[in-house]
From TrEMBL:
<dbReference type="InterPro" id="IPR018062">
    <property type="entry name" value="HTH_AraC-typ_CS"/>
</dbReference>
<dbReference type="Pfam" id="PF12833">
    <property type="entry name" value="HTH_18"/>
</dbReference>
<feature type="domain" description="HTH araC/xylS-type">
    <location>
        <begin position="198"/>
        <end position="296"/>
    </location>
</feature>
<keyword id="KW-0238">DNA-binding</keyword>
<dbReference type="InterPro" id="IPR020449">
    <property type="entry name" value="Tscrpt_reg_AraC-type_HTH"/>
</dbReference>
<dbReference type="InterPro" id="IPR053142">
    <property type="entry name" value="PchR_regulatory_protein"/>
</dbReference>
<keyword id="KW-0804">Transcription</keyword>
<protein>
    <submittedName>
        <fullName>AraC family transcriptional regulator</fullName>
    </submittedName>
</protein>
<dbReference type="InterPro" id="IPR009057">
    <property type="entry name" value="Homeodomain-like_sf"/>
</dbReference>
<dbReference type="InterPro" id="IPR018060">
    <property type="entry name" value="HTH_AraC"/>
</dbReference>
<keyword id="KW-0805">Transcription regulation</keyword>
Length: 296
């Protein structure tokens, strides 16, 4: 790791915490007395790099990317590099440049996740290779959780060497990956939930003619009944029952005007088991019975 020569330091503390054939862990901390401080690091060929930013306002620019990124304290990224890649980190206004880098070879992660074992594993590895674990929301990097902080502290403070250290470090990295996958999975769940009303509407638009109860809709879509009712009404300003009724009545009116179907057939086609219920609902909606509308 090469430091730019034009900066002076009142303190320099960096260290290789661990290195094996597959994993490298480096802790970096510099404090500058001049305006800014820069540091270069190298991402290995076919490697995943975890960068945990432990000081504020860290800028990053990689040689394979023309865009500068700025990270806040306690944010992190999981980045895949297919080829050897040089990246530059810097901070301004005499701020400390402090981060921890974990580099893991691609083959190690491949063997760990085993994408051939199931679809979920294959999707996780694909997301990692496509660098989908950089931004949590739009262009916002994820924040480290309390548990992540504890793991980094354990890694940096571990004193044993040899095979025990190797097993310890590998276990902690696996735990970090699990936490990252969970954090991004929760993000996807939140995004899915934000589309709940649209999901409900699409289902109703396609199935309003069926004799479905709220309990069945809830079970099929996989959303709690109360949440189902509440979110739909808040979003569309109508209840699910009223919306379904509106769809049925509009379809019934078109079919009655066309005069190609019997009233009983129309009732069944629109989701009514009994003609009497259909006739009652139709008259309430349009002020006339289906028969009178058809007669003009």
């Amino acid at each position: 790791m090469e430091l730019k020569t034009r900066r002076t330091m009142k303190q320099a503390k960096r260290g290789l915490l661990f290195q094996s054939e597959d994993i490298k862990v480096v802790f970096h901390e510099d404090a500058a007395t001049e305006k800014y401080l820069k540091s270069n690091f190298i991402e290995g060929q076919s490697s995943f790099n975890l960068l945990f930013f432990l000081s504020p306002n860290i800028n990053l620019q990689a040689s394979d990317c023309g865009t500068n990124f700025q990270f806040k304290k306690n944010q992190y990224i999981l980045h895949y590099s297919s080829a050897e890649n040089h990246a530059e980190l810097w901070t301004e206004n005499q701020e400390v440049l402090k981060y921890l880098q974990i580099k893991v070879n691609y083959q190690y992660v491949f063997n760990l996740i085993d994408p051939k074992s199931n679809l979920e594993s294959a999707e996780i590895l694909e997301n990692m290779k496509n660098n989908n674990f950089i931004f949590l929301h739009k262009q916002t990097p994820p924040n480290m959780t309390v548990e992540m902080h504890m793991i980094l502290k354990e890694i940096s403070g571990y004193s044993k060497k040899g095979v025990i250290q190797k097993l310890f470090i590998e276990a902690k990295i696996i735990k970090l990956l699990i936490l990252i996958f969970e954090q991004f999975n929760e993000k996807d769940t939140v995004e899915d939930l934000s589309k709940t009303p649209e999901t409900i509407k699409k289902f109703l638009d396609e199935n309003y003619h069926k004799n479905l109860k709220i309990e069945e809709i809830s079970r099929i879509i996989g959303i709690n009944q109360n949440k189902l009712r509440k979110e739909f009404k808040e979003y569309y300003q109508t209840t699910i029952v009223d919306y379904v009724s509106e769809l049925r009545m509009l379809k019934a009116k078109k079919m009655i005007i066309n005069k190609q179907f019997m009233i009983k057939e129309i009732a069944i086609e629109c989701g009514y088991e009994y003609v009497q219920n259909f006739t009652r609902a139709f008259k309430k909606k349009f002020g006339v019975s289906p028969e009178k509308l058809r007669l003009g």
